[in-house]
Amino acid sequence: MLILIFLCKSSYGFEMTGLRPVDPYGVFSTFSAESLPKTKAAFSAGTEITIDPNFYKFLFKTAYGLTDNIELNMTIPYTFDGESTSGLEDIALGFKHRFFDEGKYGPSIAYILNASIPSGQDEFSTDGRYGAGLIVSKRVGPFNGHMNLFYERPSNRKLDDEVSFLAGLDFAAAHNFKILAELYCNKIHESDDFELVEWRIGYRVKTTEFIYTTFGVGVDLKDGNPESRIMFSVTFLSPSKKKEIKKIYEEE
After folding, report:
1. pTM for the model
2. Is residue 247 part of a domain?
3. How far apart are CA 31 and CA 40, in angstroms?
4. Are strands 177-186 and 211-220 parallel, antiparallel or unpaired?
5. Looking at the domain assignment, is residue 190 inside a domain?
6. Residue 14, exposed/middle/buried by CB under 10 A (0-12, 13-18, 19+)?
7. C-alpha–C-alpha distance, residues 60 and 44, integer Å
8. Are β-strands 228-237 and 211-220 bridged in parallel, bridged antiparallel, or unpaired?
9. Number of domains into which the chain is organized
10. Which domain holds residue 191?
11. Residue 10 C-alpha from the chain's centroid
12. What pLDDT, in 10s, does the model give residues 176-220?
């Protein structure tokens, strides 16, 4: 994870939200190669507060398991600057396919194809964008680590392409409680260098069998924007069918 820090330099720009994972199939912004089971769905509502600059983001996320190793994703972000400017960011859509399952020594590997629908809000839009990402995940005991590499190209040719490096870790501290850590490194469109390097830490609670609550904070590691952020979300998973247990009685 420390290697990623040295890949990044400082500048300034507005951070687009982009595609985000639903819990528990990721960390904060880092995707896991694991996906929802076939025909299962997830819905998430959350908020994100960034400080310097001050923005309030409301995030609505959903995912659906097309098969046991193919997942469809959607993220709808709404941004408010705390004064007068507010609006919808581009709506992000994703197709995640895990093509290599985790083995005793090897990781699980997946790719994501993503695109976004322009919101029409000049302040918060790139006029749409498209890209791809690679996901590598590996579980070792109570630790589950993930590495992501994303490349995206905006439709607005005045903006540069975007590259993101993410490294996430979740630690199962208890049966229903996980400690989360993430390193997020992103090159903003209007910068020639990587701008945002942020360390994030938090926790996730399995509130019920099908509800997850996540809280986290992020701190800037360079002279970029924002300086810090607070994240909170609640995710609802569609319930699984209970397996019927058949009892067999032997006649004496």
Report:
1. 0.86
2. no
3. 18
4. unpaired
5. yes
6. middle
7. 6
8. antiparallel
9. 1
10. 2-237
11. 23
12. 999 999 999 988 655 666 678 999 999 999 999 999 999 999 999
